[in-house]
Amino acid sequence: MKSQFRHVALFGRTHASLTGAALESSRKVLDEVGHFLARQGCEVVLDQNTAQLTGLNGYTTLSLEEIGKQCDLGIAIGGDGTMLGVGRQMAQHGLPLIGINQGRLGFITDIPLKDYASLLPPILQGRYQTDLRSLMHARVQRDGHCVFDALAMNDVVVYRGGTSGMVELRVEVDGHFVANQRADGLIIATPTGSTAYSLSVGGSLMHPAIGGWIMAPIAPHTLSNRPIVLSDNSEVSIEIVSGRYASANFDMQSLASLMIGDRITVRRSQHQVRFLHPEGWNYFDTLRKKMHWNEGA
Fold first, then answer.
1. Which of 50, 84, 234, 249 is 20 to 30 A from 43 (CA-CA)?
2. Marked catalytic residue, from 31, 47, 80, 115
3. 166 burial type by CB count under 10 A (0-12 exposed, 13-18 middle, 19+ buried)
4. How far apart are CA 101 and CA 249, in angstroms?
């Protein structure tokens, strides 16, 4: 059967630290998958950043904007960090995404590299499950002006700087005062991000179909300050009350240095990321495998 997806974009790991054997491995896998897709009848293009880093020749290269307008499928090869970056960039275009895991965990890049040749063809022929993931839209405001603006699929994290001492944060939800929290920081996580940083500080796992966020403190001074689940229709505001060198990051990839009085507002983005999974994919299967449940039973 012919592929229902005719124009496919490949994305690879693009961080600058990818060198040597890791870079060569990434280049080899991208080229291998590219040739495989071509044999399935797909027109394959490379993300411009991926092409520049890997030096792969023989493929048309497109900018992110051009991919969003011209392609009907994106395939990210790497780890979850790769997919987070691609997901944020492609969400506004509605481009469906498939993740091939060349990393370690693979919560959202769920097709094992060794199995792509057997799992991709049915998806390309239209046999797949769709999984929509929400995004957060965060802004940093200073003296009434927006100084930083970003999307996040996993989490927004406000935390103290590298020096000792806590940061004090004034937290509001939908304009209602919640508390002044003294802690190492605060995490606002989506269901997708519930298996990331939020989990390590005691936040609950949240099924991706739930319209909610987790607000979880990092090492709070008051032990009764616990993670709480909020509606993702809420607007969360976090003001820096005290603390030196506080910072904010968005999916651990975008960074903003903060000053006392800065306010970070978090809303649900109007965009969603659309993942395609093999038929039979199940969120609980992923959790059981990646978190090693039932091992030794």
1. 84
2. 80
3. middle
4. 24
Specify the domain boundaries for CATH 2.60.200.30 within the chain: 135-270
To the question of domain 135-270 being in CATH 2.60.200.30, the answer is: yes
Domain limits, CATH 3.40.50.10330, in the chain: 7-126
Q: What is the pLDDT of residues 257-280, one digit of tens each?
A: 899 999 999 999 999 999 999 999
Range 80-98 average pLDDT: 95
Q: Is 80 a catalytic residue?
A: yes
pTM above 0.85, yes or no: yes
Q: Determine the Cα–Cα distance for residues 273 and 100; give it in Å rounded to an integer.
A: 16
Round the CA-based radius of gyration of the chain to a whole number and report it.
Answer: 20
When mean pLDDT is compared over 101-110, 123-132, 158-167, the highest value belongs to: 123-132
The structural architecture, per CATH, of the domain 7-126 is 3-Layer(aba) Sandwich (3.40)
Collapsed DSSP state (helix, strand, coil) of residue 90: helix
Interior angle at CA 60, CA 130 and CA 10, nearest 5:
30
